[in-house]
Amino acid sequence: MHYRSREVVQVRSAYDCDVLVIGGGIVGLSTAYAVTRAAPGTRVTVLEKEQGPARHQTGRNSGVIHSGVYYRPGSLKARYAVRGAAEMIKFCAEYDIPHAVTGKLIVATEKAELPRLHALVQRGRENGIPVRELGPAQITEAEPEVRGLAAIHVGTTGVCDYVAVARQLAEASGADIRYGADVVRIDRRPDLGAAVRTADGMIVRGRVLVNCAGLHCDETARLTGDDPGMRIVPFRGEYFTLARPELVRGLVYPVPDPAFPFLGVHLTRGIDGSVHVGPNAVPALAREGYGWGVVRPRELGATLSWPGSWRMARRHWRYGAGELLRSVSKAAFTEAVRRLLPAVTPDDLLPAAAGVRAQAVLRDGTLVDDFLIKEGPRTVHVLNAPSPAATASLPIGREVARRALTALAAS
């Protein structure tokens, strides 16, 4: 018996960790946090190619804690956003992270939007979210400069500092977080685990691999030998800051088009008091293409060679043309904002940092609407986790951790 105990220790020591997470965004760090909470003593290593956490999707969004009002009842987005919003507020309060529960207005500005607005009321109630219907006078009372035919008020929406949340998750997880670790090769063997090589020649061995690589998750899946069955098509979201933040008290959104996973140009008063305006959604020319001048031919070629990209373009070209127009024309972007906020002028819109959404697209051109998590031998892949993934990061992390720990127990 004593010999067998020593043998286990020797085998265990051949690995650098039990769970190896690729990606130091909020989902990867939440997964590391969840693993060590669920199974204390489990060794977790996180590899992040940047020099700090949350440098891409997590750190480049509008900081909204979404209520879950938009999402199809029963979907992962609906379940995880509703649960995640409450947990995120509690997490921020526990660790003294700046946050506020502000509520938000979703405003219909045209008669054609009224049926969709009423459908959101029903959807919100099915998801267990308190929703209050407002008329024009009540809209003006809540937001004096906003105009609309009708609106709904969603009281559970908030804002927070997601970069601070990511840092806290990293610290509280107790994981070995390695920054500047750009993964270039993965040797995944079903009977052994995974050995990962980084660009600087470092090799890290784990018994189970978790792919939370965000904008690069499909490429990472292929490095393991798994076919993800989708391709990340990057969409850049361009933002402005409102020069007159006093025009907006809180959060104001248009009625979204249910055919698309984007919420449209909206107004968000952040935790620092500034008001973010945007985003639009235009195809990016690189996975991390935060401006039109960032072009990476290999990545652009991968997007253009994917059949789903062309099928998506043919299906949604009218919507895409409008987004492109708002990208190249500040006047057109201003007009989109003026539908909600008539007082805004082009001079009120000051350029702000853009973000890129990692949108999974299937071969038939379908934009994956829900979170997508798949498994391979000793591997868990998070293949679609755009908004509201930051809101839902704590329950997403628990689900990914559950799958990783199941694979670990079976190894």
User: What does the largest sheet look like?
Assistant: 8 strands, mixed
Poorly predicted tracts of residues: 1-12
* Total strand segments: 22
Based on CA atoms alone, the radius of gyration comes out at: 22 Å
The helix content is 25-40%
Q: Approximately what portion of the residues adopt beta-strand conformation?
A: 25-35%
Q: What's the total helix number?
A: 12
Secondary structure layout:
Layout: H1 2-13, E1 17-22, H2 26-38, E2 44-48, E3 64-65, H3 76-94, E4 99-101, E5 104-108, H4 114-126, E6 131-134, H5 136-142, E7 150-154, E8 158-160, H6 162-173, E9 176-179, E10 183-189, E11 193-198, E12 203-211, H7 217-224, E13 230-237, E14 240-242, E15 251-254, E16 266-269, E17 275-278, E18 282-283, H8 297-305, H9 307-315, H10 317-328, H11 330-338, E19 349-351, E20 355-362, E21 372-376, E22 379-384, H12 393-410
Parallel strand pairs: 1-2, 1-12, 2-9, 5-15, 12-22
Antiparallel strand pairs: 3-8, 4-8, 5-7, 6-7, 10-11, 11-12, 13-18, 13-20, 14-17, 14-19, 15-16, 16-17, 21-22
Key terms:
411 residues, alpha+beta, 8-stranded mixed beta sheet, 12 helices, 22 strands, disordered N terminus
